[in-house]
Amino acid sequence: MIPDLTRLAKYVSLAPEELRRRFEEHAGTLARSEYLLLEAVVELAETTANLGAPAPELVSVLVDLARREAARAPRNTISANQRRVLSARTLHQLRELGLYRDADGVEPVWPHAGMLILNPVLGCSFGCAYCFRADEQRSSVDWFLNGRPTQVIGDSEVVDRLSRHPFFVPGVTQLGLHTASTEPFLPQVRASTFRLLELLEERGWRNDVMIITKHFITAADVARLASFQSFQILLFLTFNAAPAEMEPMGARHGFHERQVATVHHLKAHPNLMAAHYYRPIVPGWNDGEEQIAQALTFGEPLGLTVIGGLKEIPGLDEISLRRRLSAPTVAQGEPGEKHFPPELVERIFAIHGRLGLSSTVVGDQSCGLTVMLSRLRGAAVPNVEAVRMYDAMSSHRPKCLGRCSPAQLDACARPPVPSAAAVTDLLGRMDYDGSFEITERAVVLRSPVTPTDVELAFLSAHLRYAVLWRP
Ligand code: SF4
C-alpha cells in the first residue's frame, strides 16, 4: 500500500490522489519484492523531500530505484541496514530531481572554499558527535551516522560531471575527495577513493587533490597513493585525541597506534605531502593538557598541524546529552563560524612550546594546503584562499596565526597581482554582468547582481587574490 503522499505531492505541485494514482499504475508490473521496496522508497521520499520542483520523472525514477534494489537482493522484509542504504539512494535521487537540498548544499561535485569536492558516497560509520550532516540524521533520513556508506553515483560519472563543471579549470582548481559525505578510508569507501584517483590519473589534468581522513592508512595504501604521477596529493591526517563519546571509531582499541603507523609509512614517500589535521578541539571534550600534548606530538613528525574549533550544528546539545558529553559552547558570530576561543589557542601554543616541538601550527585548512605546497615547491606560495589579504580588510580575529616562516608570511601578504585577462577568463565561467577593477588590495567587482559566496570563493581561490563585490 503506497503510504501517505501529502508532502511529496505538495513539492511536485500535484494532488496527493493524483500522485498516488501514478505510483499505483506501476503496481501491476512489479514483483512482490519490488513493490515492497517501492513502498519503502516512497515513504522515505515523503519524509525527505524539502524543495519544490516540477520533477515529471519522479514516479519512474523511484520505481526504477525500487526495481534495481530488488534486483540486488530480492526480499520480503527490509532490515534496518537495508533501509539505510535505501535512504541514501532515495535521498540522492530526490537531490538529482531538485526535490532535496541539505543545509550545506552538498552535491556529487560540490563547490566549497574555492575547491571542487567529489562526493559519490553518502553515509559514514565513524560516528562523530559533531558531524555537520546531523540534519539528515535527525529528521527523516537515518542513513548518515549509522554505518552504511552507500555509493549513490558511479565514480566515473562524478569525474565526468567534474569535467563539465563551470568552475573546473584543468590544472588549477583544487579538488577534494569524499570530504563532505563520508570518510575516504573506511573499508566500504576506500575502493571509491582509489578509483577516483585512477580516473583523475587517466585524465592527466594535474589538479592538486586534497584528501582528509580520520582513518589510518595501511603501508600498501600509502605506497599506492604515492604512485600517482599526474597530480599532487595533499593529505590531511586527522587526530584530535577525542574520547569515544566524541568519535567512537577513532577511540577503538589499537586504532590510534595504526594512525601513528600511517605517519611512519608516509616517511618512505616524501613525494606524498601530508599534514596533521587537529580539529575540532572542543572545550570540555578534548582540550585537556594531556590530550593537547598527545595530538601535537602526533603531528610533530609531519611538521605541520592545522588547528580549529567546532562549528555549530542543529541539535548539538541533544546529541551531546545522548553521548554523555558536556554541552559545548558554540560561536556566537556569523553562521558557520567555529568556536575557538583565543585562550584555547594560547594554551595550545604554550603546550607546543613546553614540549619543545618544532611543527608549524596554522589555523585554517587553506594554510595547511599552502604550507604543504610551499614545501613541495621549495619556495613560499601565497595562501590558496588569500587569507592574509582578507585578514587585512577585516575587523575580525585574523585567520592567519602568524607562525609561518617570514618568507611564507611575506608571500601570503603580497601575492602577485592577477592580470585582467585572468579575471575576465574566470568571470566568463559565471553568469556575470558587470565590470571589475584590480587594486593592490583586491579585485573589486561591480555588478547590479551580488555574486554568490561560492562564486567569490571560486574567483579568489583561482586568482589566489582577494575578491570583493561592490554594488
Ligand atoms: S602565513 Fe598566515 S595565511 Fe599564510 S599560510 Fe601561514 S598562517 Fe596561513
Mean pLDDT: 93
Morphology call: globular
The radius of gyration is 23 Å
The fraction of residues in strands falls at 5-15%
What does the main sheet amount to?
A: 8 strands, mixed
Count of DSSP H/I helices: 18
In which order are the strands of the major sheet placed?
Answer: 1-2-5-6-7-8-9-12
Specify the oligomeric state.
single chain
How many strand segments? 15
Secondary-structure content class: alpha/beta
| Proportion of residues in helical segments | 40-55%
Task: Point out poorly predicted stretches.
Answer: none
**Ligand identities:** iron/sulfur cluster
Tell me the span between the first and last alpha carbons.
Answer: 55 Å
In words, what does this structure look like?
With 471 residues, this protein is α/β, with parallel strands linked by helices. The protein is 41% helix and 12% strand. It is built from 18 helices and 15 strands. The strands form four sheets. It has an eight-stranded mixed β-sheet with strand order 1-2-5-6-7-8-9-12, sandwiched between helices. A three-stranded mixed β-sheet has the order 13-14-15, covered by helices on one side. A two-stranded antiparallel ribbon has the order 3-4. Helix 10 links the parallel strand 7 and strand 8. Helix 3 packs across helix 4 and helix 4 runs antiparallel to helix 5. The chain binds iron/sulfur cluster. Iron/sulfur cluster binds next to helix 14, helix 15 and helix 16.
